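REQUEST ID: PR-0412
SUBMITTED BY: lab tech R.K.
PRIORITY: routine
TASK: structure prediction, single protein chain
INPUT:
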Amino acid sequence: MRRLKTALAVINRNIGVLAGFELIYKLATTALFIPLIYGTIQLTMFLTGYSYLTAENIFKFLKNPLFLICPLILLTAVGIYVILDVGAVIYIIDQSYHKKKTDIINAFRFALFNARTLLRAKRITVVPILVLLLMLSSVSLIPGALDRLALPSNLSRQISRHPVPWIAAGIGIVILLVVFLHWMYAFHYVALEGCTVSDACKKSAALGKGHRIHDLFVFWLQQIIYLGLYGLLIAVELFLVVFFSRLFPWSDRLNALSISVTMIVLLITLIVFTVFGMPFAYVFICLLYYDHKAQKGEPVISIPVQKRTAKEFEQQDLNHDGVVTPEEFAQFMVIEKKHRKKILIIEWCMIVISIAAITFYLSALQRGWFNPKIEYLHTMEVTAHRGASADFPENTMAAFQGAVDLGADWIELDVHMSSDGQIFVMHDSNFKRTTGVDAFAWSLPYAEIVKLDAGSRFDGAFMGVRIPLLREVIEFAKEANIPLNIEIKPSVQEEGLEEKLVQMIQEENFTGNCVVTSQNYNSIQKVKELDETISTVYVMGFAYGGISRLEAADAFSVRHTSVTDQMVSRVHNRGKQLYAWTVNNRYNINEMISKNVDNIITDNILLAKECIEKSQTGDIEQEYLRIINHILDNIMGGL
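STATUS: complete
OUTPUT:
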């Protein structure tokens, strides 16, 4: 407890500087790392001649000598990242320990100076030590991070069935801990005292001699405290979200919102605790370093502050006569004030630019612009079948708005062409099922079609709902920022439907926000011939054989009963995607998730989103949710 209070007191002296540096540094490096990782993967795949990676070819790819380019670039970047981060943290904690104030600029300045020193030939070997220290200093969060990795289901099953990987992992952790306890102060000797790496490792081992068990206890205690705070915060967040959703059980929109809020809050919490995990751990490592130095009578070297303060200025002999005039002091304060304003502006500019860059990258990844062509790294999406057709009249504006409200990633709809050449939205070729009027799609002009009631047969509450034009839906999709899956229902009576559809997509500048699908392969061939930039999907009720070789199709939409693991792998290996339709119950949705399809087309949007979110949520959070729901059931049952 005494050490915890001391640690909190040390952090408090420069807590704003530490938090500010970590925030700016982590945001900036994230903004740089996302394109770096993507570019490195794409470059490596290009040099090795692979257009797509799957479970079938990944091991051949890893054996290629050119593959070494990827880890070398990334390890170099990680090494520089760690050196700068740890160097700045040690500098801030050192200043705090010696009861000195500092700022972000000085911290970064020292980190850069230290990095230049360490990257010299004789000290470059400190990088692996730093990476090890960084990993182990946040070891309490590693299980949570591993829990979120989306490993292939067959690989997960194989690992869980064999004890050898677990035994090997346990032995590896023990070895790493032994190394960590010997070298945990090495970077302090390098950064603070300018020692070589070999001397730093020897001094670190000597400094910790006789204190190994004590150091390990302190290290794990702070890790447990940190993990406890993390778990407590998650529990509170989940409790509030679940409790709020229980207050309004009749609202699907609020339930969808609660699912989204849960995932966002959990992600933010994980990011925050990951960002500050290493600084929190290093405070305790630094305190142990200073304690052991004092016990052994070794001098504690403090890094000098590299900025003049007003007090230091007063003590300087600017006129070589020992006197600082009021005018000189006032001039200094004006310069110092401007200097601080510039620093503040630079800091905020870096934060805003980094956040904007990260937001852009995440949006691009979500849209598939930067997605690496690697199986298991794609984002599984949910498509609302004919809109939110379980709760609203299918293929109507009400259904499309409902799909947006429920959090669908895509809207699927069907199109026909009227007798006067207007493209409108409807599934059947005849109006009878949805409107009660026995007439074919191509037999009426749209002026007559728009008068039909497309809602009453679904529910009297939707009386007067009309059949919309595709152009109206496209305008709606633009405003709602949701892409469309436009399925062509062609017939010999609707000649020219493909041409008119492509023309409309081009006029609306909607090429990058839709896919055109059809069960008629000739239709998607026509679309590709008219505009090869439009993504096409071949829809199949049954699939067997080499479907991935159908070149006109950029993706395939297959009835879920025909989807197999081998089919998904073959399609992915051709650089294409596979959609599963129409998947409406929990068992089938989870089965498609386990098969790693790219898109689930469903009438039950909420259920599909819930299953996908659960597949991406860790076991710890799932256990929290189970306990919270049990508690709330008992409370509400008692009421």
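NOTES: Residues 240 and 384 are 28 Å apart (CA to CA).
REVIEWED BY: pending
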